[in-house]
Write a structure and sequence with these properties.
eight-stranded antiparallel β-sheet, 27% strand, D-amino Acid Aminotransferase, Chain A, domain 1, Dna Ligase, domain 1, Rossmann fold, 3 domains
Length: 408
């Protein structure tokens, strides 16, 4: 009977799904480390946890180690230790090595976590990536921008989810970005050339270093544009045709990138661009499940519980590739009006066509009185699916063109 420890900063709805999925695997005794008290979780999540340990900072290696040791004294030494939070991947890997628990090595985890190091590894392996540089001063940042030309992207070297990421179109905008994230020796910022093109993701399941399954998505518009414009309602489309020849190049590049980074067993999320001339550029790769409801899209497109499949991969090291039955997509609804206001209502649902309504599988609408969420995923979302990718794209456009969340 395996002892499994899952770590997450908060017992959020996403983490709760992962907890219940892991606990549902045969024979698992589940320990959970989080910054939330167990009482904050819904009853079904509390029932799934055999032992919970609260810490002040789950990313702190010493606190994480103490919590895992305490859980081990009650449930037995951990056989598996993992989490989905980006900032946890390195400390979890370090603790696994200390305890002799199988999993992604810490040096490999650093390849995925440190974006500048990642790009150096990928470029050395011949993987197409955007030009980049670490800048520990405003002078170095401006020198990079002068060399590659504007616009440039400014981000933390160990960022996630487009947080603290800025697009600078000229010197003044670069100065504004650097004021919000001041570079200094020992604490640089990462600068990249701004790639013009369509942004996608590539999700890959690997077992013992071999890619055994993949899926992909397209963003409309890019997450960075969604971050820059908090009112923009945007979409993610998961096409049914992920095996088409038109994606041969990114599947080949994706496998090349994962080999270079040292991927072993797990799920990876790669963000990549197709430039206007058709060439590719890999933006970054994460050794964790994707955000932006992509795991839900995979579940809907395959008629499976993809979160449970990921949990089984992490616990048992096995994966049964699901068949693609549908295309799927998500429309993110974002508040319109006073950004400091409260949600007054959601309008336009009655204008969405019957054809679109027939494709809806999941809906989360904001409740009246709540404040706008800071995440680029917005204040609510609608998921649709269809055997035809074009039908999904039409339905998403119908939703974001008609539905409005009012802030007042």
């Amino acid at each position: 009977m395996p002892t499994v420890v899952f770590a997450a900063p908060y017992l959020s709805p996403s983490a709760a799904r992962m907890v219940t999925a892991t606990a549902s695997l045969p024979g698992v005794r589940l320990g959970v480390v989080s910054q939330d008290p167990q009482e904050h979780a819904p009853p079904e999540v509390r029932a799934a946890i055999a032992q919970h340990w609260r810490v002040d900072d789950v990313t702190d290696l010493a606190q994480l180690a103490g919590a895992v040791d305490a859980i081990g004294q009650r449930l037995g030494a951990p056989d598996r230790l993992f989490g989905a939070y980006e900032q946890l991947q390195v400390p979890i890997a370090q603790l696994r090595e200390r305890l002799g628990v199988p999993g992604l090595p810490s040096e490999t985890a650093m390849n995925f976590r440190d974006k500048a190091r990642m790009k150096d590894v990928l470029r050395a392996a011949g993987v197409p990536v955007a030009r980049h540089a670490l800048a520990d001063s405003a002078h170095a940042a401006h020198a990079f921008a002068a060399r590659v030309g504007y616009p440039v992207v400014v981000k933390p070297p160990a960022g996630a989810g487009s947080v603290a990421t800025f697009r600078a179109g000229d010197e003044n905008e670069l100065d504004d970005a650097l004021r919000q994230a001041p570079p200094r020796p020992g604490d640089p910022v990462l600068l990249e050339e701004f790639v013009q093109g369509d942004e996608h993701s590539l999700e890959t399941v690997s077992v013992d270093g071999r890619a055994v399954w993949h899926s992909l998505t397209r963003y409309y518009p890019t997450p960075l544009e969604a971050v820059r414009n908090p009112w923009v309602q945007w979409c993610v489309v998961l096409p049914r045709e992920a095996d088409d020849a038109r994606y041969d190049d990114i599947r080949r590049v994706g496998a090349q990138a994962l080999r270079a980074l040292g991927m072993t067993t797990g799920l990876t999320h790669m963000e990549w661009f197709r430039r206007r001339d058709g060439t590719l550029a890999v933006s970054e790769v994460a050794a964790r499940p994707p955000g932006a409801q992509i795991t839900s899209l995979v579940s809907r497109s395959t008629d499976t519980d993809f979160v449970r499949s990921w949990a089984r991969l992490m616990v048992e090291g096995t994966f049964d590739p699901p068949a693609r039955k549908y295309a799927a997509g998500v429309a993110f609804l974002r508040g319109q009006g006073n950004p400091n206001g409260r949600i007054r209502g959601t309008h336009g649902l009655d204008r969405v066509s019957e054809a679109t309504r027939a494709l809806v599988t999941d809906v989360q609408l904001p409740y009246v009185g709540m404040g706008p969420r800071p995440s680029y995923e917005g204040d609510g979302w609608v998921i649709v699916r269809s055997p035809e990718t074009a039908a999904v794209e039409r339905a998403l456009m119908d939703i974001i063109s008609n539905v409005r969340v009012e802030l007042a």
